């Protein structure tokens, strides 16, 4: 695999760290800025809103630019947002800074996925995307725990300065390792880029992302009370157990990339089925300490097996605007984050038990499988007539030739 993929992984590591670290630093931020923890929680939403808005918008307006230049510019915006977070004087300014930090997130992964796939042979495309996303999953193993500990001991502002330093390292890596490329060929502009997404297969692929990863976040958002109240773990053990989720996600990401290069659709179906099964078994697995640790690991593995095939599927369905499509998939991922957490919270608030969010997630995984099945059926209907026409033409030409010979 090209060494340039390492530069993309470094950027993904920084993005993954800043996205998830705020959840662990809410008490420190709330105490320092003299706000409540629920109010501090809006900082998580501000970042997600930045991703949803920035992902398709930045990918579309930079469509004609050199992708190497775009990646470096996006990472520079990421550094600026995190530096502004570290220097924010109050909650309002921190909200704005977190929103700015989220803007380049989706576009970086979207453009990065296109760059990654263009550097390898067609049969290794999914693997190249999985190696870029390796930075995101490793962030859950090392980046987030280390950044959280840094914030707890040196202050939360030190964490965001550290993330800014990771961003600067990513910029240097991108400048050194990503090959120079020319600006993209002139297209129909922003309207043409957006028009490329106006197809049913693209929206079905995005819908699969929302439902599939919504299943993950319905359970993962409430995994801490499951581990403490159902499995009996102490609060101090939760950080280590969440690192196990990162281990599972890393394994699933690499496995999904390898399998998707052989069969993208089968890998997606198998991943969604596995995710539904793991979530359905959560009430049982959370009954003992050892099986709860296994459940967290399997959750990360099953969910991230689907990452690479989903991203490639969206890019293929919108082949005339792959950067925009891949970026839109990142926006869908963050919608899944918010929507899944909301649905899991409804199950919890209804009094169905501490593990009920996992069962709600299992239902979402089944829904995702249904959407993926519909997408497959639509693909079959669109390709079947074309294949039929090819057979008619192939059978007719020799007959004409034979008549001419007589």
What does this structure look like?
The chain is an all-alpha fold and 406 residues long. The protein folds into two domains: 1-178, Growth Hormone, Chain: A; 196-388, Growth Hormone, Chain: A, CATH 1.20.1250.20. It contains 17 helices and no strands. Helix 1 packs antiparallel against helix 5 (91-118). The chain is globular. It is a multi-pass membrane protein. The chain crosses the membrane at residues 42-63, 70-89, 95-117, 129-148, 154-179, 200-220, 232-255, 267-286, 292-312, 332-352, 358-378. One of its GO terms (molecular function) is transmembrane transporter activity. Its main location: membrane. InterPro entries: MFS, MFS_dom, MFS_Efflux_Transporters, MFS_trans_sf, Tet-R_TetA/multi-R_MdtG-like.
In short:
Its main location: membrane. The chain has 406 residues and is an all-alpha fold.
Name the structural class: mainly alpha
Count of spatially separate domains:
2
- Poorly predicted runs are 387-406
Sheet-strand content, in percent, reads: under 5%
E-strand count = 0
Q: Name the assembly state.
A: single chain
Instruction: Label the CATH architecture of the largest domain.
Output: Up-down Bundle
Enter the CATH topology name of the largest domain. Growth Hormone, Chain: A
Whole-angstrom Rg: 22 Å
Subcellular location: Cell membrane
GO molecular function: transmembrane transporter activity
Keywords: Cell membrane, Membrane, Transmembrane, Transmembrane helix
Membrane topology: Multi-pass membrane protein
Descriptive key words:
Growth Hormone, Chain: A; 406 residues; mainly alpha; globular; 17 helices
């Amino acid at each position: 695999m090209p060494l340039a993929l390492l530069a993309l992984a470094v950027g993904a590591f920084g993005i993954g760290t800043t996205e998830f670290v705020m959840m662990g630093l809410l008490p420190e931020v709330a105490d320092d800025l003299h706000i409540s923890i629920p109010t501090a929680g809006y900082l998580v939403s501000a970042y997600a809103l930045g991703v949803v808005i920035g992902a398709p918008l930045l990918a579309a307006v930079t469509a004609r630019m050199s992708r190497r230049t775009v990646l470096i510019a996006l990472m520079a915006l990421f550094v600026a947002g995190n530096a502004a977070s570290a220097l924010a004087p109050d909650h309002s300014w921190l909200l704005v800074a977190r929103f700015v930090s989220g803007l380049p997130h989706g576009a970086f992964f979207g453009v990065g996925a296109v760059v990654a796939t263009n550097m390898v042979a067609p049969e290794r495309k999914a693997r190249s995307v999985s190696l870029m996303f390796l930075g995101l999953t490793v962030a859950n193993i090392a980046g987030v725990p280390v950044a959280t500990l840094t914030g707890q001991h040196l202050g939360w502002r030190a964490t965001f300065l550290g993330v800014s330093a990771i961003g600067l390292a990513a910029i240097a890596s991108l400048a050194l390792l990503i090959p120079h490329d020319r600006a993209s060929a002139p297209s129909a502009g922003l309207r043409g880029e957006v028009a490329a997404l106006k197809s049913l297969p693209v929206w079905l692929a995005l819908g699969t992302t929302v439902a599939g990863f919504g299943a993950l976040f319905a359970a993962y958002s409430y995994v801490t009370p499951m581990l403490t109240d159902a499995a009996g773990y102490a609060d101090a053990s939760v950080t280590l157990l969440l690192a196990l989720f990162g281990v599972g996600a890393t394994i699933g990401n690499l496995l999904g990339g390898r399998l998707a290069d052989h069969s993208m659709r089968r890998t997606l179906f198998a991943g969604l089925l596995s995710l539904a099964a793991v979530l359905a078994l959560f009430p049982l697995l959370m009954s003992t300490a050892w099986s709860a640790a296994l459940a967290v690991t399997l959750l990360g593995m099953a969910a991230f097996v689907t990452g690479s095939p989903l991203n490639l599927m969206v890019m293929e369905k919108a082949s005339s605007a792959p950067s925009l499509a891949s970026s839109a998939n990142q926006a869908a991922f963050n919608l899944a984050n918010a929507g899944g957490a909301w649905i899991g919270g409804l199950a919890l608030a209804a009094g169905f038990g501490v593990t009920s969010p996992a069962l709600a997630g299992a239902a979402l995984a089944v829904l995702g499988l249904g959407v993926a099945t519909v997408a497959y059926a639509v693909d079959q209907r669109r390709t079947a007539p074309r294949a039929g026409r090819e057979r008619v033409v192939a059978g007719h030409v020799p007959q004409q030739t034979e008549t001419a010979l007589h």
